[in-house]
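Researcher: Here's the sequence for the chain we discussed earlier.
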Amino acid sequence: MLRINPDKALALPPVKYQIANINQPLPANWLHLLGEELIKHLNLQVDTAKANIHHQLNEKAGEQSTYTHKADLQKVLASLYLTLIDQKTLPSQRVSIAMKLVEGLPQCTPGFHNRCLMCTNTAVPTNLDELLSLVRQDLVARTASENTDEVHAHNRFFSVANTAGFGVRAMNKSDTYTGNIGDKVILAKLKATFATHYTPITILNSLIDQLRGLMSDRGYAGRVEAGYNEIYHQFGRDFLRPFIGELNPVVLWETAVEEDEITTKVLDIHWLVVKCALLQTIYSQALFIWSPEEDVTYQALLSDKTPKTLTTPLTHTTDELIQFMAFLREWPSSHKAAYVLAHLRPQPALQHGEILAALFRQHPSLLPILKTVTDLDINKHVDVYLATQLKQAATSGNLARLVPLVEQGISLLPVLTQLMRPENKAAFMDEPTLRQHLTANDFQHIFTEGKYQGKSLAQVWIQSQRGRYWLSKDASLRTRISEALDADNLNQLLTQAEQTKPILHGKLFAPVNVNLKTFLLLIAHGEQEPAEKMLKDASPTDRRALLTGKAIVRDYADETGRLLKGTALQLALGAEDVKYHDDEKAMTEMLMEYLRLETDGETLIADQIKAQFPKGWEAIEKARADRDNDAIKQVFDAVFAAKNDAEITQAVNVFKAYLVRENKGEDGNKVFKQGKYFNMDLLTKALDLYDECYDRNGGTWNSPKNLACWQKVIGSIQRYLSTPYMQATAQGIYYIVEGGRYVDGAAKGKEPLKRSLKFSYDNQPYFSGTYNGSFLSLGNDYAGCGRRLPALVTAWGGSQSARGYKNLCRAKTDTFWKIMRYLQSQPTQHQYSAGYEQSRCVIL
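Model: Thanks. This is the structure I predict for it:
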């Protein structure tokens, strides 16, 4: 069984106690300047918070401090101050140090001393051993945080790990306080964590995660279609060499020829090259121990040829297989299939389906290649999984997911009932790939429930105006329905349908309808550039159809999406997709520009605004705001009153159920047709309450009650934000409202909305992702603030986030009301109620 080599993979690298040289001169007021650095790197704006930091620093390490080990504490703090002002220190490193120091300030002075010593472990690694030591440190720190919020017990985890040989250094050996968890319990927790998360496969992914983080600090942002400037040298061959050895610069970069056809641009790094080099370095340094058979399987990873039948797996659990496929992302599909087969062969055949279903959920890209594999009946398991996914896609109305499934030969028969629901019917009929894959047998299907009970699909299709339109346009479709009914029955049904529900002149369903759904999905998903491209590329007729057509689409709420119905402008307004900066053009402004190209553009704009916000909508918004206000107060009160973890969980689950009802409805089919799709006041109130309740809920960021309020309450609210607010959260509200992101050591100005659902700090997905082999999800394990944060720094961190959201909402609301007043200025429109200005407080 492939395993780690403890002599190498658990070895302590040389001591790096001091990040900066403590012997360099220090200004007399260096402790005050340290406080200023903490304030700067955490972007603190509240004066009381600033003053509190200075007061606590002086209390613990200043002239009046009576702490026995004050000299040692001052030495560590001075080193950290010099590190923070050192130009070579990376921005993320500065933030990490600042967060840990400020988190420790409310602790007792010995506890704060422990926290300071933790910061000395944030030194930038210089080789693979040091990089691996960061992985181990993270595992110990995570194990400690999951089991205690007491600083001395947290320190004890590192002391026990050091003594037990887990390859981490003790933080503060002189700490006389052992904490509230016994050493035997700590050792058992550590063994369980390392057994699961420190295996050869998890180590591979963890090392890549660490490398990506270091590269991100140097300007790496994934694939950049426009190409990188010269910044790519900062995370290239010279940077990578100490970790994975020498690399050929010719094959390291993925490049493309510029439009001038002379110069080339760097689009991305070739991760296959990097990962192969890492595998080779691990092999040469003997970090793992393997049998001769495992050696053959390992060496196949480094070969360009598709491996022959692999008899010995490198993975032994389903989790390891999933993680291994993540590492092999850049490998050819045939290689991946070989390793999947190697994993399955030793497993009981009855478990193959369950293993593959778990694998496909995380890696759907494996489906096409594994569908062609007949060994071990893998292709049959693929078909079963695809059929399940087909039903889920049809039920959710995400028809885009259906196209690649039916292209792989999956029948639509099991999901015809869902596809013919009113919210899906038009888009289903309009989608050419789905029409093409309907067979004569499908058209003979009799509905056994619902609106069309007792009728065949062919009958329902013919009774539909849209269905008959496509019959007239699609000869192949007519042939299949005729085969299902026979020609005489088809003609008879067509005649009857035309008599009862004729297609009126001018009411033809032009092919642009199939693009309308795609276009409106782009609007709902906040994808402004591709949406505008569709408008630019469209003919005048098609452009008008895109701008005036309505359909039911889903946004990103809770990943599965909230049902929305309206025109493009209505969807943008409902999501508050309006500009924040004066020189910005958001979705709403872009759509209004194109609407004004129509001869009746001003009327179209006014009519669509009125349809989205009809008279009386303010009262509906106010009622929702009142419900939200009651719900958020109740959950915070219930968490505070909870006597144990079970009661905390119960309180959170009640609140989560409320969010589902408000955003999805009791049956999951609620369709938002008017008003705003989400009340942002719910989030800002939650952040305010987190601040107000911080001390009563434990006074530390990782107390069980504060963690629940941040990770599970605030994180769950963030799952339901309208798309542009999700994108702003992922980017970091502060960077949009205040600016100050550090790039190449310099603070930059305010940023426009970048339209990404990946956190700007670590490029991880908004809703979920893996870290050191563990799956994390928004609303359970973290909340977002430009990164995935398990908790805010301290109570005033809640105020800071709330203020950022409030400033963003306030400016967007001002823009929103300017648009609403625009409607009042149109002479053809009735005047709205005087409640407009008063209702602004509901939005804010």
